[in-house]
Specification:
407 residues, alpha/beta, Rossmann fold, 2 domains, 13 strands
C-alpha cells in the first residue's frame, strides 16, 4: 500500500480489498464444495501446491523425499509460468501447470495437498483448498517466536479471520510449536504433527551442495549472514540501524577478519520501495546483497554461514541446528511487540549477543568469529526447546504420517 496516500485513503483501499477478498473466497468455497463432490478422489496423489515463484523450502525437500517412494505419485503444481518451465526441465512428467484443464482435473482428483506458503486462502485462487474434501497439509515456512495468524492484530481486524486458510494438518518441530500453531490457526493440536520440518534435514546432512563455492568464491572465507524478519504492518527492517555506523570502518574490519557480510532482505520487503531494498552496497567491498534472486533457497546457503545476524525471524531458530553463533539486532523491539507481538520473552529466549551500537556489533562479530563456542550452552537449551528431533529424518516422519492418513 502506498505511503503517499492519506490514512483515510489507505483505510478505504484496505477495506475495499478486504471486502473483495471476502466475496471471492465465499464464492470459491461454495463453488468448490459442489465441484469436489462430482469427482472421486485418488488417495495416492500427493500434490505439492507451489504458491511462490521459486522452488524452495519445506515443499521442495519433502517432494524430493517422497518422489523416491512408491506409495504416492508426487506432483509439483504451480501457476507461475517461469517456475513451471524450470521445474519441467528438472522434473519432467512430475509437474503440472495449474492454469490448465489438466491442472483443474488433477486438483479435483487429489486428496492430499501439501503447501508451505499460504496463510490466507487467497494465494490459491482460482483454486480453493476445501478441508472437507482434501487433506490440506501445511508444512509452514517458519518456526514461530512471534505471534502468528489469529493471535496477531492484523488477522483480528475487519473480519479478516474469515480469509484464513483452513488446514487439516500442520507440521511442527516441538510441543511448544504445536501449541503456538493451535492458537494461531484454530486447529486442534492433535492435528499438529511434532515431526520436524523437512528443510532442516538438509542442515543436518553431510551432503550439502559444494557447487556454490565455485560460483561464489567468497563463501570460502568467513561468512556473516544478516537476515532480518518482515515487519508486516510497519516499514521494512533497517540494516545496521546504529547511530555510530560507519561503512568504511565496517569494510576495514571485515578485511582484517577476512570475512564477508551477506545482506538478505525478506522477500516481502524486497517488493517495497523503501530503505531496505535501496540499501547501497556498491561502495562496500565486503558487504554483498544475497537476496532470493541470488540464493532462492537460503537453506543451501546456511551451511556456509559462520555467524548469523537477525532479529525476530524464524531463520535463527533453524540455524540453531548448526550450533553456530547468532547476533540479534532488536532495535525496534518495543514497536514490534505492539504491532506483531511475541509469544516468549525476548531477552531470555534469544541465545546470543544483542547489538545496540556499531561498536558493540563489531566487537560481537570479532568475538564469535574467534570463539564460536561462546554461548554454546545457551544455544543448546533453546535448541532443545524448539527442536524435539535433531536427527535429519523429518521428511521421513512427515511422509509416514501422510501415508497413515491414506490407509
Amino acid at each position: 500500500m502506498s505511503h503517499n496516500l492519506s490514512k483515510i485513503q489507505q483505510f478505504k483501499a484496505f477495506m475495499q480489498k478486504i471486502v473483495f477478498l471476502h466475496l471471492v473466497i465465499f464464492v470459491l468455497r461454495n463453488g468448490y464444495y459442489l465441484l469436489e463432490k462430482l469427482v472421486s478422489k485418488d488417495k495416492r496423489i500427493a500434490l505439492f501446491f507451489m504458491t511462490e515463484k521459486y522452488y524452495y523450502d519445506n515443499s521442495k525437500y519433502l517432494f524430493e523425499h517422497m518422489r523416491q517412494k512408491d506409495d504416492f505419485r508426487s506432483i509439483l503444481f504451480t501457476a507461475n509460468k517461469s517456475l513451471y518451465a524450470v521445474l519441467q526441465e528438472k522434473f519432467p512428467c512430475e509437474v503440472v501447470y495449474a492454469w490448465s484443464f489438466k491442472g483443474l482435473f488433477l486438483f479435483l482428483r487429489t486428496r492430499n495437498v501439501i503447501i508451505s506458503y499460504g496463510i490466507s486462502a487467497a494465494p490459491f485462487s482460482p483454486y480453493y483448498l476445501h478441508e472437507k474434501y482434501k487433506h490440506v497439509i501445511y508444512l509452514g515456512h517458519g518456526i514461530p517466536m512471534k505471534k502468528m495468524g489469529l493471535q496477531t492484530k492484523a488477522w483480528q481486524k475487519y473480519g479478516k479471520r474469515y480469509q484464513l486458510q483452513k488446514y487439516s494438518y500442520m507440521a511442527a518441530c516441538s510441543p511448544l510449536e504445536q501449541v503456538l500453531h493451535g492458537a494461531g490457526f484454530n486447529i486442534d493440536i492433535n492435528y499438529v504433527w511434532v515431526s520436524g520440518l523437512p528443510r532442516n534435514d538438509y542442515l543436518l546432512s553431510a551432503n550439502n551442495d559444494k557447487a556454490l563455492t565455485a560460483k561464489y568464491p567468497y563463501l570460502n572465507q568467513k561468512v556473516i549472514l544478516y537476515a532480518p524478519t518482515w515487519r508486516e504492518e510497519t516499514q521494512s527492517a533497517e540494516f545496521f540501524p546504529f547511530q555510530d555506523f560507519d561503512s568504511d570502518q565496517l569494510d576495514a574490519f571485515l578485511e582484517k577478519e577476512q570475512a564477508y557480510i551477506l545482506l538478505r532482505g525478506h522477500k516481502e520487503d524486497i517488493k517495497r520501495d523503501d530503505a531496505l531494498s535501496r540499501f547501497d552496497v556498491s561502495k562496500m567491498k565486503r558487504v554483498i546483497k544475497a537476496d532470493q534472486d541470488l540464493f532462492p533457497d537460503v537453506y543451501e546457503l546456511l551451511p556456509y554461514v559462520d555467524v548469523l545476524v537477525s532479529d525476530y525471524s524464524s531463520i535463527w531458530i533453524d540455524y540453531l541446528l548448526l550450533d553456530r553463533p547468532i547476533i540479534f539486532v532488536p532495535y525496534d523491539l518495543e514497536d514490534y511487540k505492539k504491532t506483531k507481538g511475541l509469544f516468549l520473552e525476548f531477552e531470555k529466549n534469544t541465545p546470543g549477543f544483542k547489538s545496540n551500537s556499531y561498536k558493540e556489533f563489531e566487537h560481537q562479530i570479532e568475538t564469535y568469529l574467534n570463539k564460536p563456542q561462546e554461548h554454546a550452552d545457551w544455544r543448546k537449551d533453546i535448541r532443545d526447546m524448539y527442536h524435539t528431533y535433531q536427527d535429519g529424518n523429518s521428511s521421513e516422519r512427515v511422509y509416514q504420517l501422510i501415508k497413515e492418513l491414506n490407509q
